[in-house]
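Sequence design from tokenized structure. All designs in this work follow the same two-part layout: the structure record, then the generated sequence. An example of the structure record is given first.
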């Protein structure tokens, strides 16, 4: 694992919502801390309502985690473009986040401990 990235089980239960819709809740979320950045909560894909997510063309590369794929959140009231990312084939040191989704926090996307 990269010496500046820490992954641990996120304590308690977490939820993610967008546009008034609850996209998921999980007691199996992971917390990824990277350097001085705020921790990011990663949700198991199985705990997220994937029907709200539409894969986008956006990709990014992190030298420590690998290539990220993005999804837009689509619900009745809005589309939040490129609001979700996933390392579907992470670098070997980051295997623990494979199959997990993280969310770009904004006015319309909230991740909270419940």
């Amino acid at each position: 694992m990269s010496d500046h990235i820490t992954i641990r089980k996120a304590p308690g239960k977490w939820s993610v919502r967008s546009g008034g819709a609850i996209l998921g809740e999980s007691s199996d979320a992971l917390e990824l801390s990277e350097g001085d950045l705020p921790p990011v909560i990663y949700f198991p894909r199985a705990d997220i309502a994937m029907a709200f997510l539409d894969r986008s063309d956006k990709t990014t590369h992190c030298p420590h985690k690998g290539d990220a794929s993005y999804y837009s959140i689509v619900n009745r009231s809005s589309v939040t473009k490129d609001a979700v990312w996933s390392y579907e084939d992470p670098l070997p040191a980051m295997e623990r986040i494979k199959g997990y989704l993280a969310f770009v926090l904004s006015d319309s996307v909230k991740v909270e401990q419940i």
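Strands lie at 5-9, 14-18, 21-26, 30-34, 40-44, 53-62, 66-74, 79-86, 100-103, 109-113. We note this feature because it recurs in several other targets discussed in the main text.
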